[in-house]
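Researcher: I'm preparing a figure for a lab meeting and need a structural model of a single chain. I don't have an experimental structure, so a prediction will have to do for now. The sequence is pasted below. Please return the structure as tokens so I can convert it later.
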Amino acid sequence: MCGRYGLNHPHPVLTDWYRASSMPEFKPRYNIAPTMDIIAVRETESGRIGSTMRWGLIPYWAKDTKKLPVMNNARAETIAEKPMFKQSFRQRRCLIPASGFFEWKAEGKSKQPYFISSQDGAPFSFAGIWGTWTADTGESIDSCTIITTACNALMQPIHERMPVILSPDDWAAWLDPDLKQEEILLSLLKPFDAERMQAWPVSPAVGRVANQGEELIQSIS
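Model: Understood. Here is the structure written out token by token.
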């Protein structure tokens, strides 16, 4: 699963990295949790853009968002079948930039958080899907979810699941709204190369959503 991540790459870096025509201004955040507003990158008629969306997909048919579970993750193995996700999977896909993510490793009766990032310092690009929910009042909310898959060799000692991380070579296919062949799309949803990742233990303080700051991603080993 993926329930916490950070994004501290500067705004100009993300704009260049994704070759985006626009990107929302944002401050570095080191402890992003579900239901928060996050950055999502998608393809539009005017080019690739970054948008602000709620983390936790709200299906368009929902009547009351308060009665829904928070859909912050969708499993790659069932995303093409589940009614909650299948329409967005076919029509509304996005990339979710991250500087790294957190996962908790069970150690006896306690859990040790780890921070996982790329070896070369580049942002991760999580595979995501998005949708627009409209309330009876006319208010609309764009929301998204992060797709997860089986763990790779680096993640295996920490957790059995991990976010799907897409390499730049796969961005165009994933973001293409005209690409609807499930076999092609599903083939992209695989574990990232473990040799391109690194992980280290961090402070349990990251478990509290209110905590922010660079110290949350610093190694305690």
